[in-house]
Amino acid sequence: MKLRNILAAGAATAIAATAMPAFAQTVVKATTDLNVRAGPGPNYEIVGVIANEGNATVEGCIEGGSWCKVTVDGQEGWAYSDYLTADMSGEQVVVTTRRQELAVPVATYENDAGGGLAGATTGAVAGAIVGGPIGAAIGGAAGLAAGAVIDPPETAVSYVRSNQVDPVYLEGEAVVGASLPETVELREIPDYEYRYVYVNGQPVLVEASTRKVVYVVR
């Protein structure tokens, strides 16, 4: 009888251990104001923002991709891990490049739309954002990635908001300092030196000569 009770207790302990998550959540920090989206891709709507230098937790990342499932201030969503860093033995490392060492598990996205992008817009991803400031906070370019390069006048911002154009969808996030490919058409703003475009559903101001994002309209 005593042996049976010990075995039962051992079985219960084993079940409890199996139910425990294999990995703890990873605390990360954003190197720029970073969108949190409803799904793992640029087509999905923005549901929140991780502030520059703000913290979030990562539950896992898509296998072979840079989109990670995060929670920030109680809001769950997906963020692009090129702009997330984590502490590894006292060193800040970029999540995208050190996922294995950080023991970040693989995350999956539950798609209830029968193969389509559940909750996503229908625009096709036409390319990738070029040369974004990956891990800028640990690469010395934190000022560029962290905030706007410019402080646009309200007239320019109002014009951009009032004159929406069809968005272009690019892999990644159009953060300040990132460059847009030549295929993206930039629109003029009257009496203003910078151009604008809607990237991944969000308006941004761009320096025409370099094609770098200088301001994100939120």
> How much β-strand is present in the residues?
25-35%
Rough outline: elongated
Mean pLDDT equals: 81
The tally of beta strands, per DSSP, is 15
Query: What's the N-to-C terminus distance?
Result: 68 Å
Helix content: 10-25%
The largest sheet, given as strand count, sense and whether it forms a barrel, is: 7 strands, mixed
| Structure annotation, total helices | 5
Quick rundown:
The protein is α+β, with helices and mostly antiparallel strands.
Explain what you see.
The chain is an alpha+beta fold. It has five helices and 15 strands. The longest helix has 18 residues, at 2-19.
Keywords:
alpha+beta; seven-stranded mixed β-sheet; 218 residues
SSE arrangement:
Blueprint: H1 2-19, E1 26-30, E2 34-37, E3 46-50, E4 55-62, E5 67-72, E6 75-80, E7 84-88, E8 91-94, H2 99-102, E9 106-107, E10 125-128, H3 136-139, H4 142-146, H5 154-162, E11 169-171, E12 187-188, E13 195-199, E14 202-207, E15 212-216
Parallel strand pairs: 4-9, 10-11
Antiparallel strand pairs: 1-4, 1-7, 2-3, 4-5, 5-6, 7-8, 12-13, 13-14, 14-15
